[in-house]
Predict the structure.
Amino acid sequence: MASQMTEISVDCHDPERLSSFWCAVLGWVVVHQESGLVEIAESPPDDAALLEAVRSGPVVPTMFFAQVPEDKVAKNRVHFDVSPVDVSQQEEVERILALGATRADVGQTGGESWTVLADPRGQRVLRAAQPGSGPLLAVSGLALDLPIETERLILRPHRMDDLDDLERFHGDPDVVRYVPWPVRDRAATEETLRVKLTQTELVAHGQWLVLAVEVRATGRVVGEVLLKWASDRQGEVGFAFARDAQGQGYAAEAASAILRLAFDDLGFHRVTAVVVEGNAPSARLLTRLGFRQEARFVDGVHFKGAWVTQLVFALLDEEWRVR
Ligand SMILES: CC(C)(COP(=O)(O)OP(=O)(O)OC[C@H]1O[C@@H](n2cnc3c(N)ncnc32)[C@H](O)[C@@H]1OP(=O)(O)O)[C@@H](O)C(=O)NCCC(=O)NCCS
């Protein structure tokens, strides 16, 4: 006998709101509630009865909503399919929209038998199909679409075997002069690589997505691009490339790809970049990409033992689209 699933846990901002939405959609009830936690189920489970039911056959899992501080940004990894019981698809879609759901675009053509909805905080995507023709509502879990491929490059999460390539530029004083890292030896590069292995998602404000930039023709990692989810629909980019890989347009190609991700896929409104004055190649690259210099903070930060002036560059989604 294998195990059976008894609970589905959903991290969210507002457990009360989301659980009452799902109670209304499914006709379920709240069976347990405490600070930041709400459990809903088809019917109130009694522990002994639940154990008996689990032993005798499949059970309908309860849903457990747990409050977490971060907002949603990455595409969902899970979705729920639900079907109407005794009404048409259109009626059920209208009812669920009235409960606070919104219509969602996941690339559907309009010819599908299902409808896509997002729940009240866009936490999950719901697809509504015709009764009897498959699922009505699907809550969809979509990750960042990685790797990103461009003409000459692959932007992908780091791997442990990138260490040799990373050591080449993390240990180069010329490359790190204007970035906030020290010159790193192999051990320090390995330590930072272990952190990079985890920087593959954007699920909370302040988090950085860090991607290795691999040249398709050689398989060598020549640099890295970074995208921070700074705040609601705001991002920040960063980049660093090995000295012998500069001056070939690789940074521009990789940065354009990360901006496409930010504006086109994640729907960001504004992306910034902060440059230490004197870092001319970086300022040139940002200008070529369409960024405007917005601010100049004189002695804005104490950086590597001295006060330095910072230049803040920014690009808006509408500027990106008409560049
Ligand atoms: C900032 C940095 C990424 C810019 O790299 P870069 O190689 O100069 O930028 P690009 O990839 O856009 O390459 C552009 C240059 O390549 C040339 N080039 C050659 N072939 C090219 C091609 N096929 N396509 C585009 N440009 C090409 C361009 O003419 C341009 O030269 P120019 O800057 O002398 O005018 C790089 O200097 C770097 O890694 N610096 C160290 C880390 C750092 O400071 N990061 C920024 C922190 S804010």
